[in-house]
């Protein structure tokens, strides 16, 4: 007969999101990516609740790479998301400074 003492009980997870989710938009306000992000944040807030905000990182050059890098280095907990265009895949190749 097996002992139940050493068995783990399933943990209850908090509902997602239990805190504010930051959506990083590394493009200037008013552009197409920003427009999509605004609609996405609005619909998420209507559906899930007031837990989603967007952050702009358009003051630095190149913003798409810096934004994608910031999200990649954030905690892998699902509370930092990226809305971007495919340009962030192509941009690293012409750059000389690969430390971004």
Notes on the protein architecture:
This protein is an alpha/beta fold and 100 residues long. The protein has one domain: Bordetella uptake gene, domain 1 (D-Maltodextrin-Binding Protein, domain 2, 3-Layer(aba) Sandwich), CATH 3.40.190.150. The protein has 3 helices and 3 strands; from the N terminus they run E-H-E-H-E-H. Strands 2-1-3 form a 3-stranded parallel beta sheet, sandwiched between helices. Strand 1, helix 1 and strand 2 form a beta-alpha-beta unit. The protein is flat and about 50 Å long.
Quick summary:
With 100 residues, this protein is α/β, with parallel strands linked by helices.
Strand order of the largest sheet: 2-1-3
Structural domain count? 1
Helix fraction by DSSP (H/I, runs of at least 4):
25-40%
What percent of residues are in strands? 5-15%
List keywords for this structure.
single chain, 100 residues, D-Maltodextrin-Binding Protein, domain 2, 3-stranded parallel β-sheet
Layout of helices and strands:
Layout lengths: L20 E5 L6 H17 L3 E5 L6 H10 L7 E3 L4 H4 L10
Parallel strand pairs: 1-2, 1-3
């Amino acid at each position: 007969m097996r002992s139940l003492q050493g068995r783990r009980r399933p943990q209850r997870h908090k509902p997602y999101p239990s805190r504010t989710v930051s959506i990083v938009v590394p493009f200037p306000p008013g552009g197409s990516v920003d427009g999509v992000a605004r609609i996405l944040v609005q619909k998420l807030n209507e559906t899930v609740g007031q837990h989603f905000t967007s952050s702009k990182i358009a003051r630095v050059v190149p913003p798409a790479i810096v934004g994608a890098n910031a999200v990649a280095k954030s905690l892998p907990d699902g509370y930092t998301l990226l809305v971007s265009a495919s340009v962030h895949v192509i941009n690293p190749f012409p750059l000389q400074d690969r430390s971004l």
